[in-house]
Recover the amino acids of this structure.
């Protein structure tokens, strides 16, 4: 659910302070803030983006995995004449090891 942040004022002589709430839309976020804080003013209500460093690292990891998969596919296609015999030899060695255990 998206997070919304707003600056509210609860007393006429006080200063604004920030509040955060989770809601499905901006109107329901405004209703929640009104219900919880009973503010005089609600100013600058906006949806907080989740573009934090953690999600950026997660996105980067996904792109790196996709790049690695495409690189391996490129290697297999470009050097098939090396990959196929090497794979066959490795499969024979693995099968021999599996039979000897």
């Amino acid at each position: 659910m998206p997070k919304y942040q707003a600056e509210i004022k609860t007393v006429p002589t006080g200063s604004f302070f920030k509040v955060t709430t989770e809601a499905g839309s901006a109107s329901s976020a405004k209703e929640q803030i009104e219900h919880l804080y009973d503010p005089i003013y609600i100013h600058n209500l906006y949806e907080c983006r989740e573009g934090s460093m953690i999600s950026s690292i997660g996105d980067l990891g996904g792109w790196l995995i996709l790049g690695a998969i495409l690189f391996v596919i490129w290697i297999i296609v470009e050097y098939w004449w090396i990959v196929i015999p090497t794979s066959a030899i490795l499969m024979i060695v693995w099968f021999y090891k599996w039979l000897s255990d």
